[in-house]
Amino acid sequence: MSGILDRQHHYFRKQWPKRELLTPGQKNVVNIPSINPEKAYLPPLHIELGLIRNFVKAMDQNSTGFMYLKNKFPELSDDKIKEGVFVGPQVRELK
Q: Any idea where the domains of the chain sit in the sequence?
């Protein structure tokens, strides 16, 4: 019957093995990172989108940078460019 819930087998408990190398106060990293994470700066995409939007809104409409954006994204209307409406792939393309 499809209307009755199978409450006996709805949840399964998994027995996880105990940690062997947990040392309090130390980072438990299996592999060493290839770069120093303190020197890497990758801002989240929503911050980049906000910064790009504010930057484009503050630009002069007749500047060479604004004309570059118009030529770079011909599929976007002038109003969208003036308002700084960009999506993630377009921001990545500007990098």
A: 45-94
